Amino acid sequence: MTELRWQKSSFSSEASNCLELATAPDGTLQLRESDDPATTIAIPLAGFRSLLTAVRREIAGRRP
């Protein structure tokens, strides 16, 4: 099994409360919470891009 290179989110400020990301060899994005690193979520990259686009639109709609 290939060891994933995990990257801490730049929005994570506390060492024990971090979202970490890695790209698997199959191209899926792997997400995990630093408090429970054994539990991961695999998301196709295109799906993650769609999620980020939707979140950005929602945030932009709330700005005064």
Question: Mind sketching the topology for me?
Answer:
Blueprint: E1 7-8, E2 19-23, E3 29-33, E4 40-43, H1 45-62
Antiparallel strand pairs: 1-2, 2-3, 3-4
Mean pLDDT: 86
Shape by Cα distribution: flat
Q: Estimate the helix proportion, in percent.
A: 25-40%
Domain count: the total is 1
Low-confidence stretches: none
Number of helices: 1
In short:
This protein is of the alpha+beta class.
Structural description of this entry:
The protein is of the alpha+beta class and 64 residues long. It has one domain (7-62). The protein has 1 helix and 4 strands; from the N terminus they run ββββα. Strands 1-2-3-4 form a 4-stranded antiparallel sheet. The longest helix has 18 residues, at 45-62. It holds the Pfam family DUF397.
What descriptors fit this protein?
flat, four-stranded antiparallel sheet, single chain, alpha+beta
